[in-house]
Amino acid sequence: MKTFIILGDSITDCSRDRDDIDSMGMGYPAVTAAIIGTQHPQKFRFINEGASGDRIVDVYARIKRDITNQKPDYLSILIGINDVWHEIHDKNGVAAPKFEKVYSMLIEEIKEELPEIKIFILEPFVTPGTATDDYWDYFTTETKLRAEAAKRIAEKFDLTFIPLQEKFDEAMEKAPASYWTRDGVHPTAEGHGIIANELVKAVL
Fold it and tell me: CA 122, CA 105: separation in Å to the nearest integer?
């Protein structure tokens, strides 16, 4: 059985039980595990290593404990929105150049330790919402910079890049942003479905 770690911030965490390694939370990791696990029984063991509030520097700080020590065969990463968001009120965001530098270090060290690992880089995204409307220009500009950096990282290391912003933009042509995210950052069940669908397509 292959180990598949799903890594990220609160979008990934989604109320998982930290005391239960098999807890997938209530978001896209659970949906992804359900779809792939149904189609390919006992092929993958999914582990949700999302941590609410994480920025790229926080993910890098837990690289050994939550990634390489578990020796995953597959890894997906969705990170970047907190690197933007935390700057607004706490002045504790991660600037785009540093985001890219640390992200590159993260991937390089993972691949050095686990050269056969399959990594999927998910694009950070943002929609209109209660958390983003007052700072919309900042959110869109800065999130795009993190998204572009994530794509360059994927290209640099020949990894699979999964675009999400365009998927949410397309979805908002069918229903308002509030249908897809609760606040512009955290997805609804339907928004998590978008992410899960794209990840499943990339994996299978």
Answer: 17
Stated pTM of the model: 0.97
Local structure of 124: helix, strand or coil: coil
Q: Are strands 74-78 and 2-8 parallel, antiparallel or unpaired?
A: parallel
Q: What is the mean pLDDT of the chain?
A: 97
Structural domains of the chain, with CATH: 2-203 (3.40.50.1110)
As a whole number, mean pLDDT of residues 68-96 equals 97
The answer for residues whose C-beta is within 8 angstroms of residue 170's C-beta and 6 or more apart is none
The span from the CA of 112 to the CA of 103, in Å, is 14
Helices (H) and strands (E) in the chain, counts: 10, 5
77: closest CA among 157, 154, 170? 154
- Checking if the pLDDT of 97 tops 90, the result is yes
CA 161 to chain centre: 11
Residue where the block lists tokens 């290391």: 157
